[in-house]
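Reminder: ligand-aware prediction takes two inputs, not one.
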Amino acid sequence: MALEKTLVLLKPSAVQRALIGEIISIFEKKGLRIAALKMIQLDDEMLSEHYAHLADKPFFQRLKDSMTAAPVVAMVLEGVEAINVVRTMTGATNGRNAFPGTIRGIYSMSKQENIIHASDGLRSAIMEIKRFFKDEEIYEWKQTCFPLLYSEEEA
Ligand code: TYD
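Here is what comes back for the chain with thymidine-5'-diphosphate:
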């Protein structure tokens, strides 16, 4: 089982609704290690790259406007199989369909204003971490509670 890093953005909707602390706390309590954390104002260029797969969609400009309406909080989370774990915790894209207990399921009633972005696979996690963080902004601090989070065979 692999120790993975994944990228999370707390979107402007989370920042405006004062949910930053609460959502970070959910990830911390789960046992994920926060390897990097910062607030950034996204711009058109970063978003055109980040959401390149949606460039031909009719909602693309609306999505970019929503993502630049306030700063976002970006973080790198690490854990065993973290990419899948965080994606599962995030829930379905449309908050109205997201399972209760997921972050979108708890906090969102919308497809666009859905609070959080999380990398959807290994390739995108690697690219997205690079997009938002310099190497020196990512800290390899040792999680001393690690032996309490995982069995020896899992870690
Ligand atoms: P996508 O990458 O499909 O979903 P996810 O964020 O769950 O990985 O879409 C990126 C963002 O685009 C999504 O979080 C919200 C927005 N979006 C819309 O506003 N309308 C839509 O119909 C879709 C599919 C996405």
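The beta strands are 3-10, 33-40, 72-80, 116-118. The longest strand covers residues 72-80. We will return to this case in the review session.
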